[in-house]
Amino acid sequence: MKALALTLALTLPAAQAAPATFLNVATGSPTGTYAAMFKNIGVQCAQSAYLKERGTSGSLENIDLLLSNQVSLAFVQSDVLKAKQQIDQDPRVENIRALLPLHAEEVHLFAKPAVVKKNIFGKTTTTGVTTFADLKGKRVAAWGGSLITAKVLSAKLGVAYTILSVKDRDAAFAALNGGQADAVLAVVGQPATWVRDLNPAAVNMVPVPFNAALDGIYSSAKLLYPNLGAGSVPTVAVQSVLATRDFKTADKKKILLDYQKCAIAKLVNLQEDEGMHPKWQEVTFKTWPWPQYK
Fold first, then answer.
1. Contact of 188 with 33, CB cutoff 8 Å
2. pLDDT of 236
3. Which of 81, 134, 232, 253 could form a disulfide with 222 if both were Cys (CB 3.0 to 4.6 A apart)?
4. What pTM was estimated for this model as a whole?
């Protein structure tokens, strides 16, 4: 009998454990805030082992990937979600949930330094973009979720300009430097490393005004980049969120809820440990502006 049992044990295939479930997460540029914050959570939470990062061009691609079932989680700007819901009237957005409401992302508006000329009578004239109103009739380069922000700000603030859709940040600044664009609009959580690397002789930061027309989508904010020679530059910000769909299957639900629980429990570590992104200091995990994943 023992010999028979041994023979069966050697000849029958061993029972295999069910394969582990892995979920894809759309972040953005490798040097961007989304990618940094995803990696920061990975340092604190072992549950991150079940999540695989997918680099993208940003919020616009991320929400499309999430809605089309190409990823299970996506970092997105809340104004991109609002646009999908209210402008595109995409019914799939009703299935979106906020796994982790995150930080505010500031609108960065760049232009070449203004040119000041004096005529023979001593009168000075300034050409270029120094205020948001100066964008009227001009060309603004943007990419990813910033394209949506550029459209909303143009409509809400009553300044009509042409939006030049480009592939990425490098293409946007190439258009600015080459004269194809008059300004570059980017939505990114400050301090952004690439902004700190900009040459102050080649680019200026342009203020973005906040008024009642923006309330409910954007909030007033200030940009601080000493390398660009500016004290504080007024702008507006939009909240970001790590979004998912309202999954019901047990394996996905466990991964998502365990990840959510760990991130919330480790918030103080994310805010205080050296090397974590400064934006963690703004995070409260409050569930605005989207229903929470439960």
1. yes
2. 97
3. 232
4. 0.81
